[in-house]
Hints:
By secondary structure, this protein is mainly alpha-helical. It is 66% helix and 4% strand.
Amino acid sequence: MSEHPGFFEVALVYLAAAVISVPLAKRLGLGSVLGYLGAGVVIGPFALGLVGGDGETGALMHVAEFGVVVMLFLIGLELNLGALWKMRGSLLGLGGLQVLGSGLALAGGAWWWGLEWRQALATGFIFSLSSTAIVLQSLREKSLQGTAGGRHAFATLLFQDLAVIPMLALLPMLAAKDLATHSGAGALETLPGWLQGLAVLGAVSGVVILGRWLVPHVFGFIARSGLREIFTAAALLLVIALATLMTKVGMSPALGAFLGGVVLAGSPYRHELEGDLEPFKGILLGLFFVSIGASMDLHLVMANPGRIALLVAGLVLIKGAVLAALSKGFRFGADTGALYTLSLFQTGEFAFVLLGQALALGVLTGETAATLNAVVALSMALTPVALLIYQNLLRPRFQTVATGEARPADPIEHRSPVILVGFGRFGNYVGRLLRSQGIRPVILETDAEHVELTRRLGFEVHYGDATRLELLHAAGAAEADLMIIAVEDEETIDRLVAMATRHFPRLELVVRANGMDQRMRLLNAGVKHVFHEMAGSALDAGARALRLLGFPAYTAERAARRFSRHDLETAAELASVSHDESAYIAMVRERVAALEELFRADPVHPGGLDDHAWDRVPHHRGNHGSEHEH
């Protein structure tokens, strides 16, 4: 066995650290990214020393970086050229101003710190980039990617990935003359600049042409073979080929993969590609974050703590000021602006590549590059913490409209026996059904932009945070008969249930549950009317499937309603044993068998109108009956 651990030994340590630390971090509410980074620090040379220098972790780091490439490919699959064109304002305007403004401001700060102007310019624009991997993963975990701030951050990150190309071209021009020929532009480094540009254009055009006309036929041929593992291999081959091609012409491999994903977004095999690559993306991204944590030179940090802390603070303040100014200039609301700023203040993973290139070209000295690498790693580690602060402390306190002007919660002038909290994907169905029956619920919603939109559509929706006790009093909770909690965030649901139970004990609660775990938790908390958010539409789909298989409409609807009633009874029984895994599993098996026996013993037939399945059931199952067929 060699003196240093090999690839498999290092991989074993990485995976073991991730398996232990990430669930712990999630249980503590810290998020998986912070768990991965912490695992890397613990196993790194500064703590346990299980992994150390470049010779030990370099190969695994290259494998882990492939996770970023796969992530960008999957992001591209979710978009298309039309979607990118709609984003052109944010992509070019906001993204371009962010890179230019942050780059120049940070270059000025680096020059003031004492770097020579070429070094300062390189440092400034390298630090203008943010971490696509950490930001998108953190936003997705906290369900913030669909917010206005999340969308603006995504557009800016895309532009930053595009900006890597001119930065790679800029670095050789800043190098000394005797090193300027080593541009690092892959196989084209010896060609004149104009030929390199033509090669890049040709490579991009080739990706578009092949992705649009050839690749779908290849995947169709493979799909018809019925060999799932070959389809997965072909998907990996495609991503690796795109990354390699772009690397050869001096472009970012992640950007090449993103471009390939955009081209294939309209392919009929898009969803198959997503399903096959998603597991690879998750584990490789995790290894990438662990690698960043392990690569932190904390010995250097501890040797110069004051200096490193000042540099990190300077980066955060300067870049944060530029981001805040852009938020103000583009008229973001306070909530959107805060999320945008706290998402992008750090420096990203491409900085490691660009700093290494700058060191190889002689633009930066070894000491300077090592210091800046430490600043990059620490700024990335601060990102999950900043987003936790935003989600738990700042977001609940923001009460803004799209114009960015602060306002208190809307006054509520009418009273209703029903309070509906949340008017999004779930709540708007409930609200519209109640309105169709002449019931005007008091509707509370925290998304100010959504409030303005729904008001233009004719709905009376009030802006306000229902977790504030005074707002519930203003909405008439003390006199109301029923509160429907239809929000998505699990913490908000739990807080509302606790508040209503404590302060309004006579108020009946109808609560949306995001999954089985939350459903069990709410039932154990004493909530009688808990509805899995997908149960209704899933049973509607099942009833329609029975109709397409030849079942009469009455039979299909009756079976779905009977299943729903059985499911409600099962949930109540499972809640009582939810803390005992063996009893829970036994109960599930027993209830599944009971359901099958129920239908075998009493098969459904049209005409059995004395059956109780069509009786009024006090628990609402979903939107059945919206498409009656007779």
